[in-house]
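From the shared-data thread, chain only:
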Amino acid sequence: MRRIVGLLLLTTFFIAPTPLWAVTKNAQVSNAVSVGEYRFSLYGYTSPRALVTFEGVGIKDETFADDTGYFLFTNRFSPFSPREACLTSQDQFGRTSPPVCLPSFPTTYNVSIGPVLLPSTLSVNKGAYYTGDVVILSGQAIPNSEINLIVHTNENKSLPSLIKEVAAYTLPNYTVTTDKKGNFSIAFPSSQAQSYRIFTQVNYAGSDSQSAPSPKSITINLKVLPVWMIVFHYLTLLWKTLQGRLLETIIIVQVVLAALLGLKLFHPHRIKSIVVREKYELLVR
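Structure, as tokens:
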């Protein structure tokens, strides 16, 4: 009996299964998480090196465009149900384009979506303009593409001017072409106090040489003010500065008034003497 037990122990020692650490020591663990069974690919064009965000319910992804403005979301998992998602881009200067929302795409088979043309970014060089200033608009879009600047005037909301203009200036639509880095800039004069609504559209000519317009950019509401409004703005700025330091202003005024009162009390007016010439007698009645 003892021989049988010893034989079993010896057999167990030599032919036991490999320890767990030997199995997992060289193992490679790969984690994968998906939200759907099928996949989709999405591509399009925007400004070079822009950060493109694709976001919706159940979808969130980011990628960077290359030097030509081309971007690609490839081999992404589709959501379980068809849902709307939107694309936005942020250019190299931090300006963001308005979202381009795509209709829900099929989720029961693999799909490829594109090309999607994203709007250009747009900004102005300063916040306030007066008659005679030069308005400069700039932005980034698809390289070597045509940019249309669309301008609408609000005549009913134009600001009154102290001096009426003899000839009104009608601002035409401008067309420029972006450079190889996607930059564009447009300058136009402001000879009349007026309100404007300005936006741009990109005309992109693809490989088939057919031009396709992009959605419009953000709309900039621009007001050109008459020159006399500069004084009003300075007074408003001064009032806001004093209002923010009201206590200090009151103390300074009180100190100045006290100083003037002290000068008047401690330095009374001297009584001036009357000098009468000898030639004339001073008659007192």
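The chain has four helices and 16 strands.
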